[in-house]
Design goal:
Strand 5, helix 7 and strand 6 form a beta-alpha-beta unit. This protein has 8 helices and 8 strands. It is α/β, with parallel strands linked by helices. The N and C termini lie close together (about 10 Å). An 8-stranded mixed beta sheet has the order 1-7-8-6-5-2-3-4, sandwiched between helices. Helix 1 packs across helix 3 and helix 3 runs parallel beside helix 4. The chain has a single domain, classed as Rossmann fold. The structure holds S-adenosylmethionine.
Length: about 250
């Protein structure tokens, strides 16, 4: 089954990539837009409910804004809140994020289990980044929030790491850009490498389901095929989009 959820103003909601924490709309509106997206995910059977602690999310955002070095990002404030909320609701014991650049997308996910936004205990939170200098920056950023060894930043190719991964993955976040080779098409390679470590009910989040849908066409065909994923929902709260799929 495939669904799409669009916020009415998704194409007019635009950020400055170099100012990720600049407020673009009243917080109540941001919160309502994300709540509508969470309702769509609940109605699709992906989320059990839509409740998350909004104050903890704001504390997490404030902590990341004050401590992280982020050269640029296309993660809008709505997308940040959405990714945090999905993690806070699902509470994955094992979360893996592939293609984390400076670590911001990693913490959007892991922030539900570490730092000021912590609302549950995870077992393993893993970020994978192929560029060693960006992996080192991500490590520096993340260590400002935690020294817990359940958190691991790995400088390597996510396809190789996941092909050799030991254990089960509850939530996989995809944002690798193929480092100049296949572009975002690498999502499908990463997902296939992880596939046998994902149980029925595991969640996959894929950024850029809207603006890079063409590069992602094989990936999107795969997750929207009910022979592979039970359900997949394209969440369009901004011009980038997030495909949320359940194995
Ligand atoms: C540019 S970032 C995505 C940015 C993110 N969407 C944002 O808005 O903040 C993509 C990252 O994926 C990394 N990457 C590309 N291929 C990869 C792979 N096979 N394994 C791990 N990381 C990879 C790149 O080095 C890059 O840092």
């Amino acid at each position: 089954m495939f669904f799409e959820h669009r916020s009415p103003d998704w194409d007019r909601y635009v950020m400055d990539y170099r100012q990720p924490f600049r407020q673009l709309e009243p917080l109540e509106r941001e919160s309502r837009v994300v709540e509508d997206a969470l309702l769509a995910l609940r109605d699709a059977g992906i989320l059990p409910h839509i409740n998350y602690d909004r104050e903890k999310f704001l504390a997490h955002r404030q902590e990341v804004a004050s401590k992280f070095e982020i050269p640029w990002t296309a993660i809008t404030p709505r997308m940040h809140r959405l990714i945090y909320a999905v993690n806070a609701i699902i509470q994955p014991k094992v979360m893996v994020a592939a293609g984390i650049f400076c670590g911001f997308t990693f913490i959007c996910n892991a922030g539900a289990a570490i730092g000021a936004g912590k609302c549950y205990d995870a077992e393993r939170l893993i970020g994978i980044e192929i560029k060693p200098e960006e992996a080192a920056r991500a490590e520096r950023n993340v260590r400002k929030l935690t020294d817990d060894d359940s958190v691991q930043i790995i400088a390597a190719d996510a396809v190789e790491v996941l092909a050799n991964f030991d254990g089960q993955i509850d939530l996989l976040y995809l944002d690798a850009d193929g480092a100049g080779r296949s572009g975002k098409g690498v999502y499908l390679d990463i997902l296939l490498a992880a596939w046998d470590k994902m149980r029925a009910g595991s969640i996959i989040l894929a950024h850029n389901s809207v603006n890079l849908a063409n590069q992602l066409r094989h990936y999107l065909e795969f997750v929207r095929n009910s022979g592979n994923c039970r359900v997949s929902v394209n969440i369009v709260v901004d011009g980038e989009g997030l495909e949320v799929s359940m194995k």
